[in-house]
Amino acid sequence: MWKQIGGREAGQIRPNSFSNRVKSNRVSSLQLSNYKDIVSPHRGSINSLQVDLTEGRYLLSGASDASVAVYDVQRATDYEGGGLIAKHKSIVVVDKQHEQGHKYAVSSAIWYPIDTGLFITGSYDHYVKVWDTNSTQVVMNFKMPGKVYRTAMSSLATSHMLIAAGTEDVQVRLCDIASGAFSHTLSGHRDGIMTVEWSTSSEWVLVTGGCDGAIRFWDIRRAGCFRVLDQSQSQLGRRPPLLERSALNKVSTSKSLSVGQNLSAKSRPQQRKSTNGNGVKQSPIGRIPAKASVRQRLHPGMLSGQDRATAHYGAVTGLKVTDDGMYLLSAGSDSRIRLWDVQSGCNTLVNFETVRLQTSKAIQIATGQDPALVFVPCMTAVKAFDVWSGKTRMAFRGHYEYVNCCWFSSQDQELYTGGSDRKILVWSPSRLISDESDGESMKDQDNWSD
Amino acid sequence: MEEERGKVRALIDMATNSTEREVDPRLLKAIKSVVRYSDPELRLAAQTLMDLMKRDHSQVRYLTLLIIDELFMRSKLFRTLVIENLDQLLSLSVGFRRNLPLPAPPAIATILRSKAIEFLEKWNASFGVHYRQIRLGFDYLKNTLRFQFPNLQANAARIQQERREREIKTKEILRNKFEILGQNLSTIKQEIQSTIDEIGECLDIIRAKEENMVLAPLDDDDFEEFRSSELRQIRLDSLKEGEKVHENNDNTVVFDALRELYKLLMTKHMGSVQESISVLIRVEVPDNRLRDSMLKELIDIRNRLLSVKKKCEESGCALATNVKEEEEEDFWEEGKIGPTEKGSSSTPIKPKQKLQNLAVASTSGEIKNEQSDNNELCKTDSNSPRSKLLSEAPVVEWGSFLGNWGLDRDFMANQRGLELDNHWGRVDYDAVIPAEKIAELNLQATFYKEEPVEIQPCRAPLRKGGLCQRRDLKVCPFHGPIIPRDDEGNPINQKNPSSDENPIQKNSLIDDETSLDLGSDLSEHLSEQLAKQAIQNVRDREKEEGKKRKIDKQSLNRAKLAKVREHNEAVLRNAALVSTSRSEAVGEDIEVTNGKKSSTRNKKKTLTSMLRNKVTTKDRLAQRLLNTRARGATTRQLTMGEEDTYRENFPNQW
């Protein structure tokens, strides 16, 4: 620590890497926080957790008893145990007593990405509601055709205010806050949609995972889905080979370009498989002329072989795009976690050492940037895996029932987990030594009588 | 190091391998002392203990939990180690997960659970602040699963609190009383003083009067007469006595006043003084001098009161003595009634009694002194006139009419002993209700009441000792028909079990029993019964023989069939076993262990023996089924020789 600070002082370490080192140090020492208690007012299992993206200060939780609560994770409401334990009580609660509250379980509660003045909840009572945080009143109401499993808003969006809602229904609906109507109805899934996620690299790209085991990519400016992830399409390692990648980059960045001209023979199969499909029938090499036409023909309603591809056996229960937007992590009811290269659309074949995942419910995965970790609720524990190797780095045991959701706040390097035991637990880096010495009372010591 | 490592593990293993309710204190001490000085040992201990908690035996888990608690309360490192897997520990000790119930001996499992909950509460109370996990576990068990925690600490704290509050309250009250006393002391003193003065005056008056009236000259004469000191003493006493009670019409008023004052003194003033003294003793005041001075004063007052009281009593006016006298009178009256009644009732019947006595004497063949006999009879009350009369007397429900039982006279209707103004006009005071009318009015309706029948207890001997105390009319559901039994519960008329079916015979039997002392009857009955018995016996034997023959035939048949079957099975088994050489040993092996088991059955209680329930019939069946193979192996060897003959006899079998 001191060495690093010295290095930083001398200018040997760049500010970025310094902060990254400190962060990764802290992250590696995550443990159940003893001094930070979130007092959950929920009487049902916690289904959704999110810390706001603007300040990193307000935690939003949605629970099965149709209640939503907001906590201030920075400032405690009161202290206990001689100031040792900080209690964070909810500052806003919306429950069934609220006249506009949800009737059934809240499956998803998210912040409006650019402001904490609004939050959005989706519930099993078929409604997606937009709330004003300050007045706790419903500003907007969207009636869905079925139970809402997950809602999402793009954190990058500058040109749209769309809530993507995954429901029991096979169609993904995009609710426009600006107009109060559905702006898109995306059809393609063959079963309910468990999870939706916006890309973190493009504001137009939406990823959805359904109970049919498919993960679909949608470009909301165009009709239909443009990619279905196939678990059998795989690449080894983090990146596609260098040559292909450069070609691919060009292709993906300039989609409108006529494709054929830039393509080398090597890159083609990769690209065809991933973006255009139809690779099953065609031999991978030597079909250059057909390319453009195939692409045009295929994109709107890709041909059946590609269209039926599945990413998981069983339902896709969780999706998470990494912060850089290059990779997608998915969890399925087959108890697998897969890491997908977004650009190539390939399964990277990282073997995550999960034991078992909850199958009946959507789970919320969280990622940490440095070091690249993915936090996955595995039954009663949350496990942190290394994204690239799939090795278990940490296991967070504290819940007494299934964990449904987790959220990693990269600002504070804190992990929040919510489970069916109605608790929200905070996992934070161990405190600095100076804090510990005076905070730890004399009571917790060895006490040998003989 | 390696030995050391083994040490704590061995110790823990030893400590948990016991059927006791407690961990052996010496072993526990050894574990603690080993673990105390070395962290790796502690880690190893934690690991071992967690492993032991996973054992499929509640007793092991229970003892392990006890050790864990011991270490948990002492070592911080151990706490941190255990805390990491607290949920696991809890699920193993409390068994709250449905898919992981507590293992076998259910009795200990419940103890284990309650102990675990108790420990969790304790841990939460002492270390909850430092470990979120403990709080979480406690909260989960308490608020989500709604386990009932013993709440020991909270209860103790509450009781303490209550006691403290009570003490504070009493102190407050005492202080208030003290203050009030401080204000009122002077008035109380005045009051007491005035009463005492009044009493003194009254006494003076009485004494003055007495002196006037007292026969002074008599004294001198008497003194001369009675020389001996004892007599003089008696004389003096009597004189004093004479001095005392001189209440007559003149001084009644004075005496009354004196009595009143005395009463006042005793009840009010004495009480208040005593109370205030006790208050002063108990109260805690910063300034002790005032209290002490007050206390002194009060004690003085009390002493004075006591002296005045004594004086009063000496003067013979005391109220208490008066009351006593009245009581004595009552006693005396009662006593007087008793003997007169006795005398009146006993005198007229005496001759009759004598006659009876004579009769009794003649029958018993004893000649006794009449007097003694009479006394005896009076004592025993068996034949006394009173009991005789009682036996004759009708039993009547209690009622007001009993007051004039047997009075055969008219009643004055309007004279009730109370002079009441009648608002409803004139009253005829001479109105009379005739005696017949009264009798008619007092006519009692009688109701038939069923005689309570005493149901005999079954008195069959119970397996756990004692006799069956069930009371059924005829048949006890557990022990069959109720028959007379002796003190050990054996049926008395065991010789004739068939008597149950034959009511006449039974009756005769009972008769027989009751009239044992009647010689002639007995012999008659006996011969009759013997004859019956003989006939019965003969018949029974015949029947039995017939049955036996039948059974024999059947069993013979069955045995033959069984033999055939066994033989067939043996051949089949042989064939099967021969095909695999290894399995041949199995049978013998089982047999050996089986034999051993029977021998160890009476050995010391072990952990496995705790797991094994009492051997039920089901178990026995299972055992037998499992052992058919073993038995088969032995029988096979034994019957090897016989096989040849069978083969000859039954060619249609193998």
UniProtKB/TrEMBL annotation, chain A:
<dbReference type="InterPro" id="IPR015943">
    <property type="entry name" value="WD40/YVTN_repeat-like_dom_sf"/>
</dbReference>
<keyword id="KW-0227">DNA damage</keyword>
<keyword id="KW-0853">WD repeat</keyword>
<protein>
    <submittedName>
        <fullName>Uncharacterized protein</fullName>
    </submittedName>
</protein>
<dbReference type="Pfam" id="PF00400">
    <property type="entry name" value="WD40"/>
</dbReference>
<feature type="region of interest" description="Disordered">
    <location>
        <begin position="253"/>
        <end position="286"/>
    </location>
</feature>
<dbReference type="InterPro" id="IPR001680">
    <property type="entry name" value="WD40_rpt"/>
</dbReference>
<feature type="repeat" description="WD">
    <location>
        <begin position="309"/>
        <end position="350"/>
    </location>
</feature>
<dbReference type="GO" id="GO:0031464">
    <property type="term" value="C:Cul4A-RING E3 ubiquitin ligase complex"/>
</dbReference>
<keyword id="KW-0677">Repeat</keyword>
<dbReference type="GO" id="GO:0043161">
    <property type="term" value="P:proteasome-mediated ubiquitin-dependent protein catabolic process"/>
</dbReference>
<dbReference type="GO" id="GO:0000109">
    <property type="term" value="C:nucleotide-excision repair complex"/>
</dbReference>
<keyword id="KW-0234">DNA repair</keyword>
<feature type="repeat" description="WD">
    <location>
        <begin position="186"/>
        <end position="228"/>
    </location>
</feature>
<dbReference type="InterPro" id="IPR019775">
    <property type="entry name" value="WD40_repeat_CS"/>
</dbReference>
<dbReference type="InterPro" id="IPR020472">
    <property type="entry name" value="WD40_PAC1"/>
</dbReference>
<feature type="repeat" description="WD">
    <location>
        <begin position="99"/>
        <end position="141"/>
    </location>
</feature>
<feature type="repeat" description="WD">
    <location>
        <begin position="396"/>
        <end position="428"/>
    </location>
</feature>
<dbReference type="InterPro" id="IPR042238">
    <property type="entry name" value="Rad28/ERCC8/Ckn1/ATCSA-1"/>
</dbReference>
<dbReference type="GO" id="GO:0000209">
    <property type="term" value="P:protein polyubiquitination"/>
</dbReference>
<dbReference type="GO" id="GO:0006283">
    <property type="term" value="P:transcription-coupled nucleotide-excision repair"/>
</dbReference>
<feature type="compositionally biased region" description="Polar residues">
    <location>
        <begin position="253"/>
        <end position="281"/>
    </location>
</feature>
UniProtKB/TrEMBL annotation, chain B:
<feature type="region of interest" description="Disordered">
    <location>
        <begin position="330"/>
        <end position="354"/>
    </location>
</feature>
<dbReference type="InterPro" id="IPR018610">
    <property type="entry name" value="UVSSA"/>
</dbReference>
<dbReference type="InterPro" id="IPR049431">
    <property type="entry name" value="UVSSA_C"/>
</dbReference>
<keyword id="KW-0863">Zinc-finger</keyword>
<protein>
    <recommendedName>
        <fullName>UV-stimulated scaffold protein A C-terminal domain-containing protein</fullName>
    </recommendedName>
</protein>
<feature type="compositionally biased region" description="Polar residues">
    <location>
        <begin position="342"/>
        <end position="354"/>
    </location>
</feature>
<dbReference type="InterPro" id="IPR049408">
    <property type="entry name" value="UVSSA_N_a-solenoid_rpt"/>
</dbReference>
<keyword id="KW-0862">Zinc</keyword>
<dbReference type="GO" id="GO:0005694">
    <property type="term" value="C:chromosome"/>
</dbReference>
<keyword id="KW-0227">DNA damage</keyword>
<dbReference type="InterPro" id="IPR008942">
    <property type="entry name" value="ENTH_VHS"/>
</dbReference>
<feature type="compositionally biased region" description="Polar residues">
    <location>
        <begin position="491"/>
        <end position="506"/>
    </location>
</feature>
<dbReference type="GO" id="GO:0006283">
    <property type="term" value="P:transcription-coupled nucleotide-excision repair"/>
</dbReference>
<dbReference type="GO" id="GO:0009411">
    <property type="term" value="P:response to UV"/>
</dbReference>
<keyword id="KW-0175">Coiled coil</keyword>
<dbReference type="Pfam" id="PF09740">
    <property type="entry name" value="DUF2043"/>
</dbReference>
<keyword id="KW-0234">DNA repair</keyword>
<feature type="domain" description="UV-stimulated scaffold protein A C-terminal">
    <location>
        <begin position="392"/>
        <end position="494"/>
    </location>
</feature>
<keyword id="KW-0158">Chromosome</keyword>
<keyword id="KW-0479">Metal-binding</keyword>
<dbReference type="Pfam" id="PF20867">
    <property type="entry name" value="UVSSA_N"/>
</dbReference>
<comment type="similarity">
    <text>Belongs to the UVSSA family.</text>
</comment>
